[in-house]
Amino acid sequence: MSKQVCLVAGVGPGTGAAISRRFAAGGYRVAMVARDAERLAGLEREIPGSRGYAADVADAASVKDVVARVAADLGAPGVLIHNAVAGHFGEFLDVTPDALEQTFRTNVLSLMLLGQAVVPLMLAAGAGAIVVTGNTSARRGAANFAAFAPSKAAQRILAESMARSLGPKGIHVAYVVVDAVIDVPWTRRAFASKPDDFFARPSAIADTVYHVAHQDRSAWTFEVDLRPFGEKW
Known about the structure:
It is built from 7 helices and 9 strands; from the N terminus they run E-H-E-H-E-H-E-H-E-H-E-E-H-E-H-E. By secondary structure, it is α/β, with parallel strands linked by helices. It is globular.
């Protein structure tokens, strides 16, 4: 267990998988956490040094269990990547309390639960990094995003509070705002008329996440924006 360990929460077929690949390429043991056990099994076969853990990161007991299993199997995580996301979209008057609560549980509560589970391990090691992937909704409540944007804004503020609290203790917390449409199969179908340059590549996002997690402590970043060169902002 001499290799460093990275726990990636929210490993889907796009950004989460790309981040897992990038950290594995950097020599990490990668714990991939998601609810889809079948997808994780496929990624395990593809990514050397990775292991999948099916868990609900919005459930306190599940989070405690999965972090304990990762520590026992691979070692204590020195890096946590929070990429878990739940989205719900529609007219404001159609938003249900359940929909709003679901986005908060996945986008905000899970960050708190995972952070509280891994930070004691990082403090014991004397260092650590937590990187949260966000998006444009962390700053702007667009129409039809009333059940989603509030949770992403709250997620960013929680990450900022964590950064101010944990930074002086040697744990780097950062927030990556992806102001773009990420290149995954469903977005390619939804934006079929758009050129390749319209999309943000998951591998490029993963490269930035990896870089931020390894910044020199004399020049840490809290927030970084990512967008394609042609994106209007």
